[in-house]
Structures are given as C-alpha cells and as structure tokens.
Amino acid sequence: MYEIVFMRPWPWWAAGPALGLVVTLMAWMAGRALGVSTAYGSVCAVASRMSFFSATEYREGWRLWFVLGLPVGGLLAGLGSGTFVLTTAYGELDALTRGSLLAKAGVLFAGGLCVGWGARSAGGCPSGHSIVGIAQGARSSIVATVGFMAGGIAVFNLLYAVFGR
Amino acid sequence: MRPPAVILFGVLFGFVLSRARVTDYDTIAAMFRLGDFHLFGVIGSAIGTAALGLWLLRRAGNHTLLGRPVEIRPKPWHRGAIWGGLIFGAGWALSGACPGTSLVQAGEGKLVALFTVAGILAGTYLYGWFRSRFALPTITPRVQEVRP
User: Fold this and answer.
1) Which residues are bridge partners to B63 per DSSP?
2) What end-to-end distance do the CA atoms of chain B give, in Å?
3) Residue A32, SS3?
4) Contact A152 B92 (CB under 8 A)
5) Which of A36, A161, B29, B142 could bond to B100 as cystine, CB 3.0-4.6 Å?
6) Which chain B residue shows the shortest CA-CA distance from A78?
7) How far is CA B3 from the centre of its chain?
C-alpha cells in the first residue's frame, strides 16, 4: 500500500479521479468550490485597500487556509517518496537557460506575472476553471481552459523553437 | 466546517498534484509538446469525477455533511475568459506551473518555484491595480443566482 501511494508515480486514471474526489469532498464537507488563484487576491487584500480586492471573494478566510495546505501536501509527498531535496534544479528549463539561475528566475517570474494577470482576468485557473468550472458545464470555464491550453502550447513551442539548443 | 479546517483539503490536493507529477516541469513540457497523454488523462478524468461528484451532491439537495448549503456556482461568462485564458497559458508555458502547482513545488523543495509564486502575486496585484485605477466594473458579480 505504502509502495503504491508514496513510491510509484500515479497513473492518470488514479490521479485524475483522486483530484475530482478532493473537489467533491471539499464541496460536501466544507461547502466550498475548490480553487487556488483567488487566494493570491486574498493575499493582496490583506496588504492593499484597492477597490478591486474589496470584493467578498477575496475576503473569505478559508482560501488562505486552503493554499497554506498545498506546500504541506508537496512536502509530505516528497518526504514519503524519499525524493525531498532542497534544489534550484528545474527540469528541462535548466538546459534552456544554460544553467543561469538569474535567467531561470527571470523566466519563472515573467511566467508568474502572466499567470497572475491571466488568472484574474479569466476569473480562475486550471483548478477552479478547468476542473470545478467545466465539471459544472460553465461556458466561461470551457473558454478559459481552451485559452490556457492554446496559449500554453503556442508559447511553449515558440520558446523552445527560438531558445532551445 | 471552520475556515482553518479547509487546510486539510489543501494538503490532500497538493499531495495528489505532486504524486500525479503535475508539479514536474518535464511532465508539463511533454503535455505542451503534445507528446504525452498523461496530463490530458489526469485533467479529463478529474473533470469527469468532479462532475459526477457535484451532480450527486446537487441531487441530494446541495447540503454539506453538517446541513449547510453548498456554496458552489458556475463562474459567470465574461470576455476576460478569452484573453485572460491565453495570457495565463503563456505564463503556464514559461513557468511550467500554475497558481496551485507552484506552491506545491515550493513544498517539494524546488526553491525556484518561489520566483513563480512571487510573479503570480505581482501579476495578481498589477491586475487589481489596473482594474481599480481605471474603475472598471469587477468581472465577477458578488451575488449570483444559484443554479438548481
């Protein structure tokens, strides 16, 4: 059991339903729609009095608690599988940025900027829109998800076509 | 369920994202190269399972375990979904992460994920500043009808 849960990578047909189950359990037990990106607005709401962040969705206490659990989940998975290690390595991006930590930090920060702006503009991210939103058949969630994928596929392949090798 | 208890679902969600390799840059790269079905399978089956679960919950009257109403509504349609979606996709391609997975990565010990998290916070703040500065109506209505 330990081997299956912690050691072996989960196949898609186990991981996907597990994510859907967490969504369902959270709705059933806490009555909340799982979503991550709004919590970044909640952090801004703590630090800023701007009108945008005064909307009630940024003032719900549970959101910060939820996202606080995410790194803990990653830590438990890392410790359980024995793969936890503090590292600045980041897969194939290391080769693309020629081992420059500064370049990597720049790409990741720029990517984060687009993710943050895009998520607020779209009204959600792959958790709130792509999983919970499409599960409810919401048009905005379907359109946003097509955007996530189309934008991602286009920019990723352009990035590696220009800077790869 | 009191707000602090929701951390439990964050831990579970983060754990599964990590075990599903959604937090692995090379797995995300394989998805964007359309060379690997894994993540499409993960997302697709997550949607299917969540749809079934939320449907069952609605059929049972949309009450939580403690008898409170389930506060889940479909996100309203707005044009921002198009442009925001595309910009988000560009950021996803650059960082190999989204708002949830970047935080999970940080927990896994991937230190550079903190640059992604900082970027997402800055992007969120900039968007809020832009909307507040130009006094545009907020995209998500604060009150919306509950779908039966």
Assistant:
1) B69
2) 23
3) strand
4) yes
5) A36
6) B108
7) 18
Cα–Cα distance measured from residue B83 to residue B126, given in angstroms and rounded to the nearest whole number: 16
Verify whether the Cβ–Cβ distance A19 to B17 is below 8 Å.
yes
In the A/B pair of chains, how many CB contacts fall below 8 A? 518
The distance in angstroms from the start CA to the end CA of chain A is 42
Burial A80-111, CB ≥16 within 10 A → b, else e: bbeebeeeeebeebbebbeeeeeebbebbbbb
Do A31 and B69 make contact, defined as CB atoms within 8 angstroms?
yes
Question: How many residues belong to chain A?
Answer: 165
Q: Determine, for residues A78 and B107 on separate chains, whether the beta-carbon distance falls below 8 Å.
A: yes
Q: Count CB atoms within 10 A of the CB of residue A6.
A: 17
Whether ipTM tops 0.85, in short, is yes
- Give the burial class of A1: count Cβ atoms within 10 A of its Cβ; 0-12 exposed, 13-18 middle, 19 or more buried: exposed
CB atoms within 10 A of CB B49: 21
- Helix-then-strand count for chain B, H and E: 6, 0
CB contacts under 8 A, A 42-81 vs B, are: 43-44, 48, 50-53, 55-57, 60-62, 65-78, 81
- pTM surpassing 0.90? yes
Q: Which residue has the tokens 């090379």?
A: B26
Answer whether A61 sits within 8 Å of B17, measured CB to CB.
no
Q: Which two tokens stand for residue B79?
A: 């044009």
Q: Which among B1, B9, B52, B79 is the top mutation candidate for probing chain A, defined by the most A β-carbons within 10 Å of its own β-carbon?
A: B9
Tokens (6 digits) for A142: 């379907």
